[in-house]
Design a protein that fits this description.
The complex is a heterodimer of chains A (317) and B (305). Chain A is 34% helix and 15% strand. Chain A contains twelve helices and seven strands. Chain A has a six-stranded antiparallel beta sheet. In chain A, a hairpin with a 4-residue loop joins strand 4 and strand 5. In chain A, helix 11 crosses helix 12. Chain B is an alpha+beta fold and 305 residues long. Chain B has seven helices and 15 strands. In chain B, the strands form four sheets. Chain B has a six-stranded mixed beta sheet with strand order 7-14-11-10-8-9, sandwiched between helices. Chain B is globular. Classes of the chains: A alpha+beta (317), B alpha+beta (305). The interface between A and B is large, with 63 and 76 residues. Strand 3 of chain A pairs antiparallel with strand 15 of chain B, so a sheet runs across the interface. Chain A: This is Autophagy-related protein 3. Chain A: Belongs to the ATG3 family.
């Protein structure tokens, strides 16, 4: 699996080097996007949903076929209140079906939860309670502490810095006194603050598949980077490790989880066909809105999608 | 979500600023250290990013990315179109060579030096021209490159009001305005967000319900004419009963420069990227004179990544 993935990456890289990026539109025929259409659709997403921004990414990784300031799209700090795995368990416990697999081919994952509103509403009913939230104490090597130093002229009522020169010391010896002098006085009680994972969701242009591609960068409850392996807990379990893989981000440092784009064009083509069969003429600048809806079935608990309020041209409602 | 818990009495409490550092920052710091810095431990100016609260339930952290560090020699200059989701905050990086140096750098003296920068910028009037300096932060790091381990302390200095400000009221902004004012305020905020990256501002509401947003340097102009004034800031905090950290130094400025005792403030927050007055808060705080603002407190968060 890993080897084949590597081989494929090498192959893809070679193909990308010898073939230019797509310039002719084949959006309705094949469900793919040209570079210009990607930018057009991205501009539309940014203007309608301003939590999304264009980014330039790392200068050394910049793609020449994209404008320097529009290399990829990102929305940051998106909450993820519950693990996808736990939601599926609950569905199953309730006798509900999680996945509707088509038998004929691999397109089944389109059918999973095509109506994101349903997922959403069930989420909202089960508003997260504190019990559901994992307070991250798992990773012992990462300590995130907050402490308070007072400094000023009246040396007397100030904790002696000598005691605190060693940060370990701060954690062990003193939080109580510091809290009683500062925390309670000027900061709200920590217990009132919801602790949850968050995600940066980014969309890049995949030159080989000629489609957008989604990447997930996770952060734990104290905003420390999540290992990509742990990100898989927030992916629909039917997709973890299959359609969702961990790879190098094309514009950022490090390994990130990504929804593999090999089926994207086929799925988008199906969505477009459905729209057209309803007499709706899909517009290419709405491509990313449609795309994000289908990605929602893969990452059901990451609440990034605000596009559902927008008219996609559908006349079905 | 959060309970009504403004006890004890009604001291104004702020949610601490969170911090978050991306892998790109560490990658870049490593190559900067290897290629350029060597054993140089001089402070380096860096840039942090934040935005107003926008996604339900989670406060926005101050974020460090690869581009937070200065570009390396010979590198393409970073393309940075103004990005409404990345409001810039100036900061200073103290990168140390050894773990011992790192620990020795975390001193009261340094906290004082950094916080004094804010105090000086307030007193010189610089903070009214470039209000981003009010949220100035600093970072002490030790990059253990052999083990790819990074020790760091993130600090947000705050000028301490003494005695602390007391809270008179704090309510959703939607409940504090007439319908006309609310509409005008929303429109003005959205326009402000689109056209500028200025996280502290003055909201002035004229008697005809027309709302104008102005930069801090216009304070004198905003006086009189029966206008209602509010001091607004991009609030990264998600709590409905507390303002976020950036208000602290803003209050210090208001107190030190404009001598106000009763301050009305607007915690500007968004929903889906647009002004939302249900989520935004309007508060009223009392700053009692005399104030000794030279006291400094600092929020430190230490971690290893």
């Amino acid at each position: 699996m890993v080897l084949s993935q590597k081989l494929h990456e090498a192959f893809k890289g070679t193909v990308e080097r010898f073939t230019g990026p797509r310039t002719v539109s084949a959006f309705k025929e094949k469900g793919v996007l040209s570079v210009n259409e990607f930018i057009l659709s991205g501009d539309n997403l940014v203007s309608k949903c301003p939590t999304w921004s264009w980014e330039s990414g790392e200068p050394s990784k910049r793609k020449s076929y994209l404008p320097p300031g529009k290399q990829y799209l990102i929305t940051r700090n998106v909450p993820c209140l519950r693990r996808a795995a736990s939601i599926e368990e609950e569905y199953e416990a309730a006798g509900g079906e999680v996945l509707l697999e088509d038998d004929d081919d691999d397109d089944g994952w389109l059918a999973t939860q095509w109506n994101p509103k349903e997922t959403k509403s069930s989420d909202e009913e089960n508003l997260p309670s504190m019990e559901n939230l994992e307070i991250s104490k798992k990773n012992k090597t990462i300590q995130s502490i907050s402490s308070y130093f007072g400094a000023g002229e009246e040396e007397d009522d100030i904790p002696d810095m000598e005691e605190y020169e060693d940060p370990d010391n701060i954690i062990e010896t003193d939080p109580a006194t510091l809290q009683s002098t500062y925390l309670v006085a000027q900061e709200p009680d920590d217990d009132n603050i919801l602790r949850t994972r968050t995600y940066d969701v980014s969309i890049t242009y995949d030159q080989y598949f000629q489609t957008p591609r989604v990447w997930l960068t996770g952060y734990d409850e104290s905003r420390m980077l999540l290992q990509p392996e742990l990100v898989l807990e927030d992916v629909s379990q039917d997709h973890a490790r299959k359609t969702v893989t961990i790879e190098d981000h094309p514009h950022l440092s490090g390994k990130h989880a990504s929804v593999h784009p090999c089926r994207h064009a086929a799925v988008m083509k199906k969505i477009i066909d459905v729209l057209m069969s309803r007499g709706v003429e899909p517009e290419v600048d709405k491509y990313l809105f449609l795309f994000l809806k289908f990605v929602a079935s893969v990452i059901p608990t990451i609440e990034y999608d605000y596009t559902m309020d927008f008219d996609l041209g559908s006349s079905s409602h | 979500m959060a309970a009504e818990s403004s006890s004890p009495s009604a001291i104004l409490q702020f949610e601490a600023f969170q911090s978050s550092i991306d892998e790109g920052f560490w990658t870049r710091l490593s190559s900067l250290k290897l290629d350029t810095l060597g054993i140089d431990q001089s402070p380096i100016p860096i840039t942090g990013f934040y935005a107003p609260y926008s996604h339900p339930g989670v406060s926005i952290p101050l974020k460090l990315l690869g581009e937070s560090l200065p570009p390396e020699a010979g590198e393409e200059t970073p393309v940075s179109p103004r990005d409404r989701n990345k409001c810039l905050v100036p900061g200073t990086l103290y990168n140390t060579n050894t773990y011992e140096n790192y620990k020795a750098t975390i001193t009261k003296g340094l906290l004082q030096v950094e916080a004094n920068k804010i105090w000086e910028d307030i007193n010189s009037g610089k903070a009214e021209d470039d209000c981003r300096v009010l949220s100035r932060f600093f970072l002490i790091t030790f990059a253990d490159l052999k083990n790819w381990k990074f020790h760091y302390v993130f600090a947000f200095p705050a000028l301490k009001l003494d005695p602390p400000a007391t809270l008179i009221s704090l309510r959703p902004a939607a409940k504090c305005f007439t319908l006309q004012e609310a509409e005008s305020l929303e429109a003005a905020c959205n326009q402000w967000r689109k056209s500028a990256d200025v996280p502290f501002f003055i909201v002035s509401i004229a008697s005809d319900s027309n709302v104008a947003i102005r930069p801090l340097r216009d304070f004198a102009v905003c006086q009189g004419d029966g206008q209602k004034l509010l001091f607004g800031f991009y609030d990264p905090c998600c709590l409905d009963d507390h303002p976020g950290w950036p208000l602290r130094n803003f209050l210090a400025l208001i107190c030190a420069r404009w001598n106000m005792e009763k301050v009305r403030f607007l915690c500007y927050r968004e929903k889906h990227g647009f002004a939302d007055l249900e989520l935004s808060l309007v508060g009223e705080a009392l700053i009692s004179a005399p104030q000794d603002l030279t006291k400094i407190m600092c929020r430190l968060a230490e971690s290893a990544a």
